[in-house]
Amino acid sequence: MIELITAPPLEQITINSEIELKIIMFQLMDTLAYLHSNHLAHRNIKGISILYDPLTNKITLAGFVHAKKVIQRGAKTDMLTIMDNILYMAP
């Protein structure tokens, strides 16, 4: 299932306080830790890829077009291209 997110990108938002910035950064670091623990690399994090809802103070990371699956092979690390949307793959 793909979720409709109506929140604007972070680059269009004015952050009003240091506390709000800390909340955003904590969520972003938590999200990245989750991705990395599942061997995924986003590879295109920027303001337009981070959707932020100031009413709920929640972020959503979008733009997984350049994401890669990370595979460790001994001392070598491979990054495999995901050819389609992570949430939807054709049968």
Strand content: 15-25%
Range of helix content: 10-25%
Please indicate the count of domains: 1
Shape: elongated
Tell me the name of the CATH class: Mainly Alpha
CATH architecture: Orthogonal Bundle
Along the chain, the helix and strand elements come as HEEEEE
- Poorly predicted sequence stretches spanning 5 or more consecutive residues: none
* Strand order, largest beta sheet: 1-4-5
Q: Output the CATH homologous superfamily.
A: Transferase(Phosphotransferase) domain 1
Structural class: alpha+beta
Please count the beta strands (DSSP E, at least 2 residues each).
Answer: 5
What summary fits the major beta sheet? 3 strands, antiparallel
CATH topology: Transferase(Phosphotransferase), domain 1
Mean pLDDT: 86
Explain this structure:
Strands 1-4-5 form a 3-stranded antiparallel sheet, with helices on one face. It has a two-stranded antiparallel ribbon with strand order 2-3. The protein has one domain: Orthogonal Bundle (Transferase(Phosphotransferase), domain 1), CATH 1.10.510.10. The chain contains 1 helix and 5 strands; from the N terminus they run αβββββ. The chain is of the alpha+beta class. The longest helix is centred in the first third of the chain and has 20 residues. β4 and β5 form a beta hairpin.
Concise summary:
The chain is α+β, with helices and mostly antiparallel strands. 22% of the residues lie in helices and 24% in strands. The chain has a single domain, classed as Orthogonal Bundle (Transferase(Phosphotransferase), domain 1), CATH 1.10.510.10.
